[in-house]
């Protein structure tokens, strides 16, 4: 298609939207309501995925090192473990740090029985290892325990398995529900656009009678459907993100000290705005494609 012709179709789409004001308003309103539901679902889905990722981060291997291991031995062991393609990160935790963390976890009152252990600390030095794929943590643990300087390795198998099962279940439910919402949105929006095109069937018939090709008739409706989808996404994206920002501020959910941790506003806002707008445009074009087909049959 020539650039001049494309601009002509875009101008016609804008003119048509302005000329059929009330019908456009009805279509944009219906698109907005549907995309508002989809936008709210997206925010919920991103936060569930965020929480599932936070669960995955809790899955790690704690490898207890031999008391005879020197600092150089430990450095070499860390480098060896890092070479494994299954390993995401390795962090050394000295026995002094381990005792300090244990006291913090138990609290001031409950940890009094640990007082005085600094001079004769019974805890081992440890390596905290995270797997690239949390689902393969148990497999990686079996490899880690084979190293000479590793006395024992613990991946908290029972808790780890439950965390991974919950994480996988949540992701599958979110995926299925998301596909269902997207299909429902497509159905509702395409039906709305069908009504706008049906109201203009005489205009299409006149264009055919004067010899316009089917594609020459289709293109302005494609652009119009896409524009209706984009216009219909502005309000739901704005409302959804403003309400979400309010929730974050009220709950202090983007702070490490908040009671509930939610997905940060950025990049969530970028994904919600991008996906919702793109979905509105694609469904608008698709609805136009389906709706105008019946008027172009020979």
UniProtKB/TrEMBL annotation:
<comment type="function">
    <text>Part of the ABC transporter FtsEX involved in asymmetric cellular division facilitating the initiation of sporulation.</text>
</comment>
<dbReference type="InterPro" id="IPR058204">
    <property type="entry name" value="FtsX_firmicutes-type"/>
</dbReference>
<dbReference type="Pfam" id="PF18075">
    <property type="entry name" value="FtsX_ECD"/>
</dbReference>
<feature type="transmembrane region" description="Helical">
    <location>
        <begin position="219"/>
        <end position="248"/>
    </location>
</feature>
<dbReference type="InterPro" id="IPR040690">
    <property type="entry name" value="FtsX_ECD"/>
</dbReference>
<feature type="domain" description="FtsX extracellular">
    <location>
        <begin position="59"/>
        <end position="151"/>
    </location>
</feature>
<dbReference type="InterPro" id="IPR004513">
    <property type="entry name" value="FtsX"/>
</dbReference>
<dbReference type="InterPro" id="IPR003838">
    <property type="entry name" value="ABC3_permease_C"/>
</dbReference>
<keyword id="KW-1003">Cell membrane</keyword>
<keyword id="KW-1133">Transmembrane helix</keyword>
<feature type="transmembrane region" description="Helical">
    <location>
        <begin position="21"/>
        <end position="46"/>
    </location>
</feature>
<feature type="domain" description="ABC3 transporter permease C-terminal">
    <location>
        <begin position="176"/>
        <end position="297"/>
    </location>
</feature>
<dbReference type="GO" id="GO:0005886">
    <property type="term" value="C:plasma membrane"/>
</dbReference>
<keyword id="KW-0132">Cell division</keyword>
<keyword id="KW-0131">Cell cycle</keyword>
<dbReference type="GO" id="GO:0051301">
    <property type="term" value="P:cell division"/>
</dbReference>
<comment type="similarity">
    <text>Belongs to the ABC-4 integral membrane protein family. FtsX subfamily.</text>
</comment>
<protein>
    <recommendedName>
        <fullName>Cell division protein FtsX</fullName>
    </recommendedName>
</protein>
<feature type="transmembrane region" description="Helical">
    <location>
        <begin position="173"/>
        <end position="198"/>
    </location>
</feature>
<dbReference type="Pfam" id="PF02687">
    <property type="entry name" value="FtsX"/>
</dbReference>
<feature type="transmembrane region" description="Helical">
    <location>
        <begin position="268"/>
        <end position="292"/>
    </location>
</feature>
<keyword id="KW-0812">Transmembrane</keyword>
<keyword id="KW-0472">Membrane</keyword>
